[in-house]
Amino acid sequence: MIPVFSGLRAEGRRLLADRSGVSILEFALVLPVLMTLGMYGTELAYMAMVNMQVGEIATSVADNASRLGQTDNTAVAPTVKETDVDSVMWGALSEGASFNFVDNGRIILSSLEVDPSTKREYIHWQRCRGSLARASSYGVTNTGKTGNLLNGMGKAGKKIHPVANSAVMYVEVYYRYQPLFGTMFVKDAEFKQEAAFIIRDNRTLNPDGSPDGVTGGNGKSLCT
User: Fold this and answer.
1) Distance from C-alpha of 208 to C-alpha of 3, rounded to nearest angstrom
2) 5 vs 40: CA distance, rounded Å
3) What phi, psi does 44 have (nearest 5°)?
4) Distance between CA atoms of residues 222 and 89, nearest Å
5) Using one digit for the tens of pLDDT, what is the confidence trace for 185-214?
């Protein structure tokens, strides 16, 4: 046998028996799968975290709006001013700054009350913040005062109803989810969270004959 071919055959047998690179080869094969699973898990975890924060924004807006006027120590029932509502909205937008809520979200705060003259439930006033174009699922200002009845706000079987001479601060929060990895794992996801708190103290619900129930300020929170 020619020595050259004999050497090649021996080298081939040695290479076939060599297992030193098997681990590296196996790792290279499974790396794309591991990376995909890791990215997918990260996306799901981030998605769950953002959804939870959207829920916390809804709760904090309803809670803070229900407390408006508590620091007013005068004997007269406090009047809710536009600047008060605006401060609540700004606080909520600050909560969502880490995931750019102001450009991709919408907060809708409604004052659900009982009309003293007709005893009908209605939305006395409504304020919004955020650039996402969304409207309330329950109507706009004065919905329920005339025309069709407004039978509370909330999901069927879990409706929230106001009581006479009081108000419920009802909040709807929408957010268009911004995925970490583009549309690789998530497409067109949108969150909606709702929360409600009854006002904590006496409050002038219709000050100075204003049909909107909120006075003063620059109107930046109007739902337009």
Assistant:
1) 110
2) 52
3) -65, -40
4) 11
5) 988 899 999 999 999 876 666 644 455 666
Q: Is 125 helix (H, G, I), strand (E, B) or coil?
A: strand
What is the average per-residue pLDDT within 126-136? 95
Which residue type does 148 have?
N
Q: How far apart are CA 218 and CA 159, in angstroms?
A: 33
Q: Give the residue carrying structure tokens 């799901």.
A: 44
Exposure letters 9-36 (e unless 16+ CB within 10 A, then b): eeeeeeeeeeeeeeeeeeeeeeeeeeee
Q: Which of 136, 210, 196 is nearest to 166 (CA)?
A: 196
| Predicted structure pTM score | 0.81
Q: pLDDT value at position 76?
A: 52
- Give the model's pLDDT for residue 18: 61
With beta carbons less than 8 A apart as the criterion, state whether 180 and 100 touch.
Answer: no
The contacts of residue 44 (CB under 8 Å, 6+ apart) are 185
Q: Which residues pair with 108 in a beta bridge?
A: 128, 172
52-75 CB burial, b ≥16 within 10 A, e <16: ebbbbbbbbbbbbbbebbeeeeee
Return mean pLDDT, the chain.
84
